[in-house]
Amino acid sequence: MKRRMHVRCHSPAFASHARPASDTMTASATGSPTGLPPTVLPELLDQAEAIRVLRRDIHAHPELCFEEERTADIVAGTLASFGIEVRRGLGKTGVVGVIQGLRPGPRALGLRADMDALPMTEHNTFAHASRHHGKMHACGHDGHVAMLLSAAQHLAAHRDFAGTVYVVFQPAEEGGGGAREMVRDGLFERFPMDAIFGMHNWPGMPVGSFAVRNGPCFASSNEFHITIRGKGCHGAMPHLGIDPVPVACQLVQAYQTILTRNVRPVETGVISVTMIQAGEATNVIPESVVMQGTVRTFTTEVLDLIENRMREITQQLCAAFGAEADFKFSRNYPPTVNHAFEAQFVREVMAELVGADQVHEFEPTMGAEDFSYFLQAKPGAYFVIGNGDGSHREGGHGLGPCMLHNPSYDFNDTLIPLGATLWVKLVERWLARA
Known about the structure:
Keywords: Hydrolase, Manganese, Metal-binding. By secondary structure, this protein is of the alpha/beta class. The chain has two domains: 7-219 and 335-431, Aminopeptidase, CATH 3.40.630.10; 222-331, Alpha-Beta Plaits. It contains eleven helices and 16 strands.
């Protein structure tokens, strides 16, 4: 797709100049796009095409973690065009919009969207496919930005509420810990809020549905790097060396006993050795073996246990074979744990919007999410919105499934007015609390 506009030049009413709706936004007899409930706000349907164009422009120009300069410019310029106060620079490329109600109030709420793309090559060839080889919006962060911008436009135009809304556009979710960096830069001190909420699209879940749960929903993400040092020798004379390869094989098996014999059976953990590198020639017993992998848990207590046992087993097993080991364990994202009140609160808002039968209990995943840093500092909840089965993709999409982190993925633009409506309803209900 050719670049349709430079968003910084938008007027506040840019949505009124939208093109006719595309096939993905075909109106039904109820006036809502196919698959959406009639409770979606009409004004958000009216602006959906313009936001769709913006979303696809962002998709075509993906930027990796802490490189989101263009995306941040688009976000900041669009917010400013809506008459929203804009603050920049938190977490390097983060953007925060401040929306004050017409009346002062004691409450303030944060809504978060992530902005970065993934370092992978897109297989789609439709008009808005990535123009930058090796970079792709394969997780839908472009859609998250679009939904929150749509909600921000509505909230800025209808400020009949008491209190403050902070729309938080976060960089570097995909491994950079952008949420952590925004917190370190004083996000919650500069923008004091009662709670913060985040939303992610979820492929395979029907359009028009949501899912949330209290407690852990995403796991911690951690990595290990182990070097086993033996003594290299000729492959025909193994008795003259110390072979690190069988040591590595023993370790792979031994690590799994941590989960089956050390962790309580009702707890959850995953240890995956994903890389083993050794040797240069078939007739040489190598000097060393490098093992790398990941550990996932839902609690810090289980993580502590796994890390300690892995270190002990590594050191003692290597010593038993006469080898030595360097053990490095890196803790990346902590588990994402929703707060009970906030999870139930957003569940009720969802039920009002789409009906209780379309609000599901989210099944925890061992994937990780750096919204966890926000939830460690503030009450809140993280939830998902159904992205459909992939049939929304236009001609030119890759042959693979429309799943997260897949080179054939694309965000479902039909979600934009639905997700934005949920944000608006959540704000209205939260700020109206006694």
